[in-house]
Amino acid sequence: AEMALASNIQIGMLPTIFPNSQRLEIFASMTEANAKARLPFTLTLLAHKKTENDIKVAIFHCLTRYKLSGGEEVAQENINNKDVALATAAVEYLGAVDPDRIFPYIGQCLKVPDIGMKSVALGILKNYDYNQAISSLKAMLNSSDQGQQKMALECMNQFDFALVRDMLTEYLSCDLSEDL
Question: Nearest 5 degrees, angle CA 17-CA 63-CA 86?
């Protein structure tokens, strides 16, 4: 019933009809058939200036899950958003539906000091250029910045263990900080 109502209401009315948690749940629990049927409404909501960032994140996750195109322009506009969750969701969406469009921004995304963004960017890079992704991971691991090293360790799960084993062994054999 909520889904039928959501597709027929004015965008500006959404905040007054559903509490925030319900609005997020609408997109998190949407089936592929519902997502496709409500795509015009969803894309309009995504592009609307008054739509809250957490709702946009939920929409990007829904669109990414089913690889539904149409939100590429809005996603590209949000790559540099101050809200890292929104920027990460936009990057992940573009990586799923239009990897050529996000590829020029991957280097910039790898510089964002957020593990979620780095993980998404490395995942996209891995699919696009596996050797470059391994090189980026190694550069992060060999950085003098402990934050970069920690992020590299957290991103290693994106790769086949056999390909990062030697890099990890070398790192672990060095003098480690107690913080890591």
Answer: 75
